[in-house]
């Protein structure tokens, strides 16, 4: 197992190298100075720009520039935000907790909802309840997240008034109190639900089909023949076998949350990394934009890697190839 | 004796029924699938109505009319007017035209690229396969949305238009198709008829196009349907965020973009609700058609 995981991680390195080259090329193609953010975009004096370019080494050969950039990047020096006038790493660390909270809440909601719906549907297939859940799943798989988000705000925030429609916390609550955390949780719930919609639907579908398939297997027949109560068969014997494959989705969840966060956070004006990403395009804050692009690409790569490795854990046959 | 001859003549006048071709069987199964057929009819209706938009409504799509801002639905404006005084119904039709067209063009590009790369990699194997598949892995590891937006930011102000968007979306999304086509080709090329074709001297291009592709066509068609839905989501999503179809061209995503304003979202639901519903129903019906096709092409499914 360790050997397999190690081989996968080693295989990731050339991919990471290629992606960083592509991001670097894109950064170079961007107008202005998108790598360090040291050149003031409002100062159009050609002499100033020329001096700064010389000082920052933008007239050096490209490979040299690339290695300097990637060297700084690995050490956590992402340059300076042209909009906030502070280090990019500071801007990111301010927003990061919000996105992590959104992602975690979304995963937890997904797991809970999918677990209950999936086990119910798997246990009572082709009944009214199963069909209802199946229909909802279909809608969840088909409705794009931005449409779902717009509808959710209209219905739950404006018409029913259950959830706030924007922000991450009420203004006026002091940090650290219980009230503060409750308010944050209240704000994160609706975006997290919308963010997890797609994965909830696919988890539920998977769990249902797997339970139905397992319930026809020999070990279930044996358990029945021995007189094991039906409840125990489903809750212990089958569930154990059906829940484990679900962990392989975890890697894909990471990937889905990254692109999902960009859309969801923008709709709910939730101050996280996804919203920052779109804002930095609008305000032409290219250092922040490129850092986030690199970060998101890296996380996507890691997500796919986790999925690969977990596949190997769940199904040892995959490790052979 | 007489009876037997009569039977014989009967057989001659009604020759034994030929068994149906796989395509005819699939067609028959698909037509019997009510949900898929309803979806197909719906989609065709939407497409026809959208493409005949100039003949159906006479209102000007793009002219801003300050005198008629944010009017509620009435007999003059069936779905009301938006914040710039443009008729929502007219924009919905023209928007459908753009959204479907972009979705369809992207799908064609993606299927073409994916099939080309997947079948070449699968057929030749070895080093060709290795290089092409590492390239596919690279494409699959890009966060799609992030890269489209970044490329958009670079191109901003230089080139702007529908075709650029279609190209950018397509180039970033053929990876999945290539993988599926490759695995299908790998399985299919082990058959004897391929060896036979090679032995009589068919060129690789001919083998791929004439022998391999027809046999994996059902998979490609099902994948194309799913891709079509994904591409419509991609276009409308990007336009919704302001990075898709240029603002002056109406598309469902651009229309939904107005829901970003809380005032519109809360009080003027006639502006954003129609495109939102159209997007959802269209995607839903494409998915139903996809499921129906998958079912129809599957010889194991009963129905």
UniProtKB/TrEMBL annotation, chain A:
Q: What InterPro entries does the entry give? A: BPD_transp_1_N (IPR045621), MetI-like (IPR000515), MetI-like_sf (IPR035906)
> What superkingdom heads the lineage?
Bacteria
Give any Pfam family that matches.
BPD_transp_1_N
Q: What sections of the sequence does the record tag as coiled-coil?
A: none
**Which membrane topology describes this protein?**
Multi-pass membrane protein
Q: Which UniProt keywords apply?
A: Cell membrane, Membrane, Transmembrane, Transmembrane helix, Transport
Q: Does the keyword Cytoplasm apply?
A: no
Fetch the CDD domains from UniProt. TM_PBP2 (cd06261)
Q: What is this protein called?
A: ABC transporter permease
Q: Give the originating organism.
A: Neobacillus kokaensis
Automatic annotation (TrEMBL), chain B:
Q: Which Pfam families match?
A: BPD_transp_1 (PF00528), OppC_N (PF12911)
Subcellular location(s) per record: Cell membrane
TM helices/strands, residue ranges: 35-56, 98-126, 138-156, 162-181, 220-245, 270-293
Q: Where in this chain does the record put each ABC transmembrane type-1 domain?
A: 96-290
What is this protein called in UniProt?
ABC transporter permease
Grouped into one coarse class, the protein's main location is membrane
Q: How does it sit in the membrane?
A: Multi-pass membrane protein
Q: What InterPro entries does the record tag this protein with? A: BP-dependent_transpt_permease, MetI-like, MetI-like_sf, Oligopeptide_permease_AppC, OppC_N
Keyword Isomerase among record annotations: no
Q: Does the keyword RNA-binding apply?
A: no
Alphabetically sorted, this entry's keywords are: Cell membrane, Membrane, Transmembrane, Transmembrane helix, Transport
- Which family does the record claim for this protein? Belongs to the binding-protein-dependent transport system permease family.
